[in-house]
Amino acid sequence: MTQTAATNPNQLDGTQGAVSDWASDQRAFKNVPWGKAMMWIFLLSDTFIFSCFLISYMTVRSSTKIPWPNTSKVFGLNVNGVEVPLLLIAIMTFILISSSGTMAMAVKYGYERKRKMTTALLLLTALFGATFVAMQAFEWTKLIHEGVRPWGNPFGAPQFGATFFMITGFHGTHVTIGVIFLLIVARKVWRGDYDTGKRGFFTSRKGNYSIVEAMGLYWHFVDLVWVFIFAFFYLW
Amino acid sequence: MAQLEGQQHPIGTYLWIWGWLFVLSAFSYLVDYLQFQGAVRWTLILTFMMLKAGLIMAFFMHLKWERMALVYALLIPMFAVMVFVGIMVWESDYTLLSRLVFYATGT
């Protein structure tokens, strides 16, 4: 396992390193490109947003007297006459995990300057992401046809619809934005922008392959949030 | 080839983690499919959830290899979220109690 860029031999590691980095009267996040540090800070703030949604969900669910809808049945699919619980959600979970796997490999090949491989993996990741959103649209359509609304539903506590649309909607928006940025980054890798130092259309700054890694962090975060939604909303 | 820059890890690491995430997701799904209930269900769901989240953060997001200054900056604020969860558990218990006391007749 290689350490990150240009490791300074005088640098301390572990907890001692954390104290000395934070107390160093200069940038605290050493060996990390600024874009990556900023992506992490953004993701931390996004974590708080999703935490607030999930905590609100917990609060309304545990304070209502009316039974919560049985998610196993509500999200079940009827395949050739057999009711399979949570089938669609399980498939969506596997698709998102696969997209995380291809993204992690895209980051690796990016740093190795294998442009074709990186582009292909980024596009594959975007394809998985788009499939996920499409399946979510299918799920929303199905539930809306069955009469689920933000203010009520035929299966139980009325808060179910409000939290469902809010949480999965916000997550789906993140996936959609991710797909758009994956396509933009894939195009830049394909053109070799990160090798030639071509300036970006928006920031006018020269990019490099750490941008693929920052993109990856965002994408893995979307997968990470899904892990929590899957556990708390669908399985609980 | 591989210059010493950014996060460089063997492809096998990613494939193994990918495989484990598949297995853990399958286990999570089985919890529902086999209709485990009660304490067993919550324990299994939370265990698989934490394992999956840990694998994604440690390997896919490279936190295992980052300096502690960054890791602590990300993980310590999570305690605030945990405290918030605690406060709202308390609050929703109180709300439920008042609903049961004052709206006992209707549903």
Q: What keywords describe this structure?
A:
heterodimer, A: 236 residues, mainly alpha, Four Helix Bundle (Hemerythrin (Met), subunit A), two-stranded antiparallel ribbon, globular, B: 107 residues, 2 domains, 74% helix, flat
Notes on the structure:
The complex is a heterodimer of chains A (236) and B (107). Chain A is globular and about 60 Å long. The longest helix of chain A has 33 residues. Helices cover 69% and strands 3% of the residues of chain A. By secondary structure, chain A is mainly alpha-helical. Chain A has 8 helices and 2 strands; from the N terminus they run αααββααααα. In chain A, α2 runs antiparallel to α6, α4 packs antiparallel against α5 and α4 packs antiparallel against α8. Chain A has a two-stranded antiparallel ribbon with strand order 1-2. Chain A has a single domain, classed as Cytochrome c oxidase, subunit III, four-helix bundle (Four Helix Bundle (Hemerythrin (Met), subunit A), Up-down Bundle). In chain B, 74% of the residues lie in helices and 0% in strands. The mean pLDDT of chain B is 90. With 107 residues, chain B is mainly alpha-helical. The longest helix of chain B is centred in the C-terminal third of the chain and has 25 residues. Chain B folds into 2 domains: 55 residues; 31 residues. At the A-B interface, α1, α2, α4 and α8 of A face α1, α2, α3 and α4 of B.
The outline of chain A comes out as globular
Mean pLDDT of chain B: 90
Unreliable parts of chain B: none
**Major sheet size, sense and barrel closure of chain B:** none
- What is the CA-CA span between the terminal residues of chain B? 68 Å
Count helical runs of chain B: 4
Radius of gyration of chain A: 21 Å
The gross shape of chain B turns out to be flat
Strand count of chain A: 2
Into how many domains do the coordinates of chain A divide? 1
Radius of gyration of chain B: 21 Å
